């Protein structure tokens, strides 16, 4: 979706929906400390093993072997040539930033605020910018999460088409 955007184009997308963590499939996802998150290889390997086990229980030996092979590929490390190619193909010459309501594995809550139905992350995003209009990207991510903490378990995500300086001021 973002690959064809031309250089100089800027897109800021907000996805307040379930399983939206990588909705635009952007290659750079940021932690609350401003660091680029690396894939969680242990979690990916565990999912692969569980899939292989479920395939075995269903009698699907092809699926079981495929799951085991994927665990092996995951175990080879995150700096593989395949990962580098994947990261390169997900980039865009445009400046694309995405705020998502939650991780891919989570649901994004709905809420009632001032008598109106809204997404919890949408409300938190607006509340964060209303309280503190001059925030960096990383400050805004943390303020949004602070707004949700204690009421919702979802963890909003910040991702980009290329590495960004998350200490720069977010301009709406």
TrEMBL record:
Gene Ontology biological process terms, A to Z: proteolysis
InterPro entries listed in its UniProt record: Metacaspase, Pept_C14_caspase
Keyword Ligase among UniProt keywords: no
Gene Ontology, cellular component aspect: cytoplasm
Pfam family, one: Peptidase_C14
Residues covered by the Peptidase C14 caspase domain: 7-163
Keyword Hydrolase carried by entry: yes
GO molecular function terms listed in the Swiss-Prot or TrEMBL record: cysteine-type endopeptidase activity
Organism whose genome encodes this protein: Saitozyma podzolica
Protein name: Ca(2+)-dependent cysteine protease
Superkingdom field: Eukaryota
Keyword annotations: Hydrolase, Protease
Family (UniProt): Belongs to the peptidase C14B family.
């Amino acid at each position: 979706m973002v690959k064809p955007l031309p250089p100089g184009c800027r897109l800021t997308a907000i996805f307040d929906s379930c399983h939206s963590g990588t909705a635009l499939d952007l290659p750079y996802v940021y932690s609350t400390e401003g660091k680029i998150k690396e894939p969680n290889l242990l979690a990916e390997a565990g999912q692969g093993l569980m899939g292989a086990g479920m395939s075995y229980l269903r009698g699907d030996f092809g699926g079981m072997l495929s799951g085991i092979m994927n665990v092996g590929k995951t175990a080879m490390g995150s700096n593989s040539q395949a990962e580098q190619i994947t990261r390169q193909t997900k980039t865009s010459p445009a400046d694309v930033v995405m705020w998502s309501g939650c991780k891919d594995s989570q649901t994004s809550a709905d809420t009632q605020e001032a008598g109106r139905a809204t997404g919890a992350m949408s409300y938190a995003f607006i509340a964060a910018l209303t309280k503190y209009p001059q925030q960096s990207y990383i400050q805004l991510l943390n303020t949004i999460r602070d707004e949700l903490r204690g009421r919702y378990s979802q963890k909003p995500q910040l991702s980009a088409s290329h590495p960004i300086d998350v200490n720069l001021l977010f301009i709406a």
